[in-house]
Design a protein that fits this description.
The chain has ten helices and twelve strands. It has 302 residues and is an alpha/beta fold.
């Protein structure tokens, strides 16, 4: 039996799913990787492609979109390997990604999760390891980050000035591609299915750290992430889910003073940010139709 299982969650990204599976097939790891594709009700032939082209891949075929956290849990519940990879279908692995993950876990016995270096489509760095901000810092980043990507609050939260060539313990790593120690993930119960989409990765890393495990970033085993391919198909709905998830995480983890005051203010701030993004995206669409510069604020990219 292999030491590694991978769960790939897909919705309507057939061609990218194929590339993702092919990149797993090209791994230099000496053992086979147990592959599970969880398809969330795709209508583009994704599931049929897996059945026809990848007979060695296990397919979980949901009839509808059950959400990312629930899909992940459905896949990982069928695995027993000591090391697990959970990733989006729009990711492509370098040839050494799996071997670097196994090396890291075997060298760091208290690591519950590790994220490799993630790159954008153009090869630039994707800021995939971040901090848990205070309420004030989160508010400043949430609004200023929409207009100024390098403001000090966003820079600190996203670790913009941090040396990403250094292996280090961090607060949380992106669920677009995350490797989990099976023992640790099973101990904390995997992903919270109360999140439909987004922030389930932050929540899991929080619970791993609370349970005494570490969450780490390693500058190796590069993964290219063609970000937002499924969310792009339903931007407003996915943005709403993102903001509902932000609110859920705050309510689960806030331990500060006067929650009777802070919690309603946070809810108001999150609702205001969602309304602002919806208005900005509408403006950008109109501007593009009139010949101006097009832009879309994608959920989760901030």
């Amino acid at each position: 039996m292999s030491r590694v299982a991978a769960v790939i969650v897909n919705r309507n990204t057939r061609e990218m799913l194929r590339d993702c599976l092919l990149s797993f097939a090209r791994q230099d790891f000496e053992e086979p990787v147990s592959l599970w594709v969880v398809d969330n009700g795709s209508t583009d032939g994704s599931a049929e492609m897996v059945l026809n082209e990848f007979p060695g891949v296990n397919l979980v075929w949901n009839t509808g979109n059950v959400g990312y956290a629930k899909a992940c849990n459905k896949g990982v519940s069928m695995t027993s390997e000591p090391y697990l990879i959970v990733c989006n279908s729009d990711t492509v692995l370098a040839e050494d990604t799996v071997s670097e993950i196994v090396r890291f876990f075997e060298s760091n016995p208290r690591a519950g999760a590790v994220g490799p270096r993630i790159l954008n489509t153009d090869g630039s760095l994707q800021y995939s390891c971040r901090e848990f901000p205070s309420v004030g810092e989160a508010f400043a980043h949430a609004f200023l980050g929409l207009f100024s990507a390098d403001n000090p609050f966003t820079a600190r939260y996203k670790k913009l000035g941090w040396d990403h060539s250094v292996e280090c313990e961090v607060d949380w790593v992106s669920g677009a591609f995350v490797a989990l120690r099976g023992e640790a993930a099973r101990e904390v119960g995997f992903f919270d299915e109360g999140y439909f989409m987004y922030v389930e990765d932050v929540d899991l890393c929080w619970r791993l750290r609370e349970a005494g495990w570490t969450v780490c970033y390693m500058p190796a085993g590069d993964v290219v992430h063609h970000i937002g391919q499924s969310s792009r198909l339903a931007t407003t709905r996915m943005t709403l889910h993102h903001h509902l998830s932000m609110l859920r995480f705050h309510r689960k983890t806030y331990r500060g003073p006067v929650p009777w005051l802070v919690n309603p203010l946070v809810a108001l701030g999150i609702a205001s940010r969602f309304a602002l993004i919806a208005a900005l995206n509408s403006f950008y669409r109109v501007r593009a139709r009139l010949g101006g510069q097009g832009r879309v604020i994608m959920p989760g990219r901030q």
